[in-house]
Amino acid sequence: MVSVLPNLRTIFVLGLTAGALNGTVGVHDAGAGSASAVSAEAPFLAENQSAMDKMMAAMTIKPSGDPDKDFSAMMIPHHQGAIDMAEAELLYGHNEQLRRIAQEIIVDQQQEIVAMRLALDQSLPASEPAPDQISGTAELKMQKASR
Fold first, then answer.
1. In tens digits, what is the pLDDT along the chain, a chain of 147 residues?
2. How far apart are CA 119 and CA 117, in angstroms?
């Protein structure tokens, strides 16, 4: 029997997407936390905002007349945005359950990007190893710096 209840990963991605579309992702109530807590979170928030801005810009396409091509042209940057946000969680997050979800998001979204490109006979991007929790933080920082 197929479950119709969404899994945590789906809820996480949908929540980030909804926040991005509404322009509400970020610190909702600056008075709720101390200035030092907000300051410590600033790099994460900046990276997340950058990922969302890049994603939203890339999702704005000129229709081609081919629904399959247009769907992929919008969904590939959407998936890449989820990857970029999950990488920010791996860099700055501390909750092990959320870090595992972020890892799953990276792997799943990369696989879906490949599947969409293959379905349209598009070339595939260069392969990159998925970051892991043990060595992923340092490797991820180096990858981000080289981009």
1. 444 444 545 455 445 555 544 544 444 444 456 777 778 899 999 999 999 999 999 999 999 999 999 999 999 999 999 999 999 999 999 999 999 999 999 999 999 999 999 999 998 877 777 656 545 555 666 666 665
2. 5
